[in-house]
């Protein structure tokens, strides 16, 4: 398999260098997990964004991982702020989707694509927190994890990688339609989760926003990849929990998850949800192994719900928008 250090992305890329980087990322969480598995797993979740974005070729660009961690944390806090107010939460998800999509179509808005790819889904994740304080605590972990990851990454050598061509700015109307599309999917997912009183009402919303893509073919790949990855990660986490693992086994789990996430960060297949689900469910199951079936069903069920809503919105919204545009042209003509 080609290395993820290569500009060519294979279906399942692997980099031994980034595997070592993931082990280094996992060091603090692993040490803590030996004494307190719950805190160790929480620290590991805090480093996940850094492991997911991969390793930029130049050291100067690696500082950007701190911004990724900060954006992830702020997004979750926003979700937690509106979570107690279901109507406000649903409208907020929809409005943010449309606003961020519109910003992507404005030249020079460099943070807009990152906000769409990471920020919006984590606003959905913030809906699952019990309080703003707990979300702020996780946000601080993510910021601290990203700072630590940046410092660690400076020890890795720079690489000569050809600069990719600049991406053209998408058409404003197309992005507005796409914003409405993901806004509908995310808002409906959030509404269902909140209305049903699920333990984690934001999981379906997060999935809907993570798998959505402007091109339907790309969305299908994400939908299948996330569904299979979450299923596998949930199953493994529950099996390990039911086996009654020692603190040492949970510490090893931290290393395996973060090292695997970093090593496969360049993959074209959507494998990251396997590692994130493995860590998140393992954290939930610490001291609560008897509810493994419940957490498995909720994680997988909400993932499939989010995928279904993203697919439905992708089929419906562009067609409605095209019909409305045609009707307007006819009236004007």
From TrEMBL:
InterPro entries reported for this sequence: Memb_transporter_dom
State which residue ranges cross the membrane: 12-34, 40-57, 64-82, 88-106, 111-129, 135-156, 176-198, 224-244, 251-271, 304-327
The Integral membrane bound transporter domain, residue ranges: 188-312
> In what way does this protein cross or attach to the membrane?
Multi-pass membrane protein
**Where does it live in the cell?**
Membrane
Q: Provide an example Pfam family for this protein.
A: FUSC_2
Q: Which UniProt keywords apply?
A: Membrane, Transmembrane, Transmembrane helix
| Cellular compartments per GO CC | membrane
Asked if the record carries the keyword Repeat, the reply is no
Where is it mainly found? Answer: membrane
Know the name of this protein? Integral membrane bound transporter domain-containing protein
Q: What is the lineage of its organism?
A: Bacteria, Bacillati, Actinomycetota, Actinomycetes, Micrococcales
